[in-house]
Amino acid sequence: MFKWKKEYETGITIIDEQHKELFKIGNESYDLLRNDLILDKYDKVVAILNKLLDYCEYHFSTEEEYLLNIGYKKFLSHKVQHDDFIKKIKKADIERIDHNQDGYLMEVLEFFMEWISGHILATDMDYVKYQRSLA
Predict the structure, then answer these.
(1) Angle, to 10 degrees, between the axis of helix 42-70 and the axis of helix 75-90?
(2) Count of Cβ atoms closer than 10 Å to residue 89 Cβ
(3) Distance of CA 52 to the CA centre of its chain
(4) Structure confidence by residue, pLDDT tens digits, 67-85
(5) What is the pLDDT of residues 104-119, one digit of tens each?
(6) Which residues form the Hemerythrin-like domain (predicted)?
(7) How far is residue 67's CA from residue 32's CA, in Å, rounded to a whole number?
(8) How far apart are CA 125 and CA 27, in angstroms?
(9) Helices 125-134 and 42-70: angle between axes, nearest 10 degrees
């Protein structure tokens, strides 16, 4: 489901590596969703959400530090997008996970895939253009 494409590459090694890791977490989620042998996925769904949250906080911190270092003019609006994403993941409804594990996981996957690809292709590519304009 989560396929890395050349168009996602920023040309910034550490950022690209971290983005690829986010795609791996997305794929772990998708693999869990497709696994019909696991009947109770609650603990695994919660673990994946926690892993996603932890890694996003780590990645966003790295990316924000990079943006500050290059003097990116739209830093604050970029950070707001990161903060909003973190808030959304932190608001995971534990009861909804328990009542409809596959449905909730699919909802999270759809949100994540839409957000990550849109964020990389639009917001992140904007700072790539900005950085290139400095060269």
Answers:
(1) 170
(2) 17
(3) 7
(4) 999 999 999 999 999 999 9
(5) 888 888 888 899 989 9
(6) 10-128
(7) 34
(8) 23
(9) 20
Question: What average pLDDT does the segment 77-103 reach?
Answer: 88
User: What is the domain partition of the chain in residue ranges?
Assistant: 24-134
Tokens 């609006």 -> residue:
77
Q: Which of 111, 12, 105 is nearest to 62 (CA)?
A: 12
CATH dotted code for 24-134: 1.20.120.50
Give burial (CB, 10 Å; 0-12/13-18/19+) of 131. middle
Q: For the residues of 37-78, what is the DSSP string, one character each? A: T-S--HHHHHHHHHHHHHHHHHHHHHHHHHHHHHT-TTHHHH
CA separation for the pair 68, 54 (Å, rounded): 21
- Alpha carbon 74 to its chain centroid, in Å, reads 20
The predicted model scores a pTM of 0.90
Query: What six digits make up the tokens of 6?
Result: 């050349």
DSSP-assigned letter for residue 122: I
**Residue 127 is inside which H or E element, if any?**
helix 125-134
With a CB cutoff of 8 Å and minimum separation 6, the contacts of 95 are none
